[in-house]
Amino acid sequence: MEIKSLPIRPDTARNAVRFIFFVCGLGLASWAPVVPYVKQRLGIDDGVLGLLMLLIGGGALFIMPFSTILLNKFGTRKIIFLSGITLALILPMLLIANSIITMGITLFFFGMCMGGIEVSANAHSILIQKLFDRPILSGLHGIFSVGGLTGSLGLGLLIKLGFQATYAMLLISLLIVVIMFVMYRRLYAHDDEIRINSHHDDKKMAAGQSKWAGWFNLHVLFLGMLCFCAYLSEGSMLDWSAVFLHEEKNAPLEIAGIGYAAFSIAMATMRLFGDVLVVRLDHRVVVVGGGLLAVFGLLVAVLSPSYWGALAGFILLGFGAANIVPILFSHAGNLKGVGASASIPVMSTLGHSGQLLGPALLGGVAQFYGISVSLIVVAFLMLSLAVSYWIYWKFQARK
User: Fold this and answer.
1) What does the record say about its membrane topology (predicted)?
2) When you count CB atoms within 10 A of the terminal residue's CB, does the N or C end of the chain come out lower?
3) pTM of the predicted model as reported, rounded to 2 decimal places
4) Using an 8 Å Cβ cutoff, are 100 and 52 in contact?
5) Which segment of 32-36, 136-140, 311-315, 318-322 scores lowest on mean pLDDT?
6) Other beta carbons less than 10 A from residue 12's beta carbon
7) Would you give the end-to-end CA distance of the chain in angstroms?
8) What is the mean pLDDT of residues 51-67?
9) 205, pLDDT greater than 50
10) Are 270 and 323 in contact (CB under 8 A)?
């Protein structure tokens, strides 16, 4: 549905927000290759490093609940720009901070920047999706994954080519700054967001709503808990796949990390085709079928006698789980009576809580019963997600 006199074409805004998602993945993944440098420079052990890493998630979770206030006051474009520029400034500081305290503060702000840009980029994408009147969010999340691969591989390549880690990170920061300045005016301003929302949604809601409306909406909270389960499955791969392959499946230590890489590539590939799948198969088929495929993949990984079979299971998990989160975000952003600026921070907060807290809880299970049992727990949660989503839409169809 077209709105007259919009200053920016929807396809222009969509291309711009693709670069923003690329920056999200690029910025987050650029941290991973420099962790050994940080550990060596600060002279810290794995325990202290683990506590420092928790501050990244802590910063993201701190800013996400308050994002509604910022988005309603300034609009998503300004928050995207401010978060992106601040991220570019923070990245080199990760290699300059020379004490545990300054590193902790830097990582906390790094997490805040990532949380701010992720919430605002998702909210802006849902706005653009309303103009297209068809799914675009899965493809954008796929671009995030491409940015992540670029960040982890690109920074490592620059360092191998002889660049000092700090200078390599400065090049990443410079790229982020260029993207932010070029794309800023290709995104919709706050006044345009209000016009678009007024055109597509209830005018009273678009004009003004409670800043905390999303936290009191049962539909948002339900979708957010499903998002918690989906993010938890991603977090379990990040934190436990290598350990599982090495200790449970006897994979050589030097290739144990390939499990998460296989999962990530499968997820990125599936997301790039996700929007087409949603149109052709319907969102219920993609979520329920994807959830069941994820369950099957986890069972294959656990029951396989070799690490090659476990790798195949991780790939199936990546294929199945790939488009669940984008679809959940899309639904939350299009609910009647609550705008994306109120619902998306809730979804992001609950989702990242699953990604941050879930693997720690699974670690408790693994300590007493083994990592295989932990992955069975993840499979049960993904099965619950698929069944709950199917029941939810059956109930919605009767209304």
Assistant:
1) Multi-pass membrane protein
2) C
3) 0.84
4) yes
5) 32-36
6) 16
7) 25
8) 85
9) no
10) yes
- How many Å apart are CA 141 and CA 283, to the nearest integer? 16
What the block records as the tokens of 304 is: 């396989």
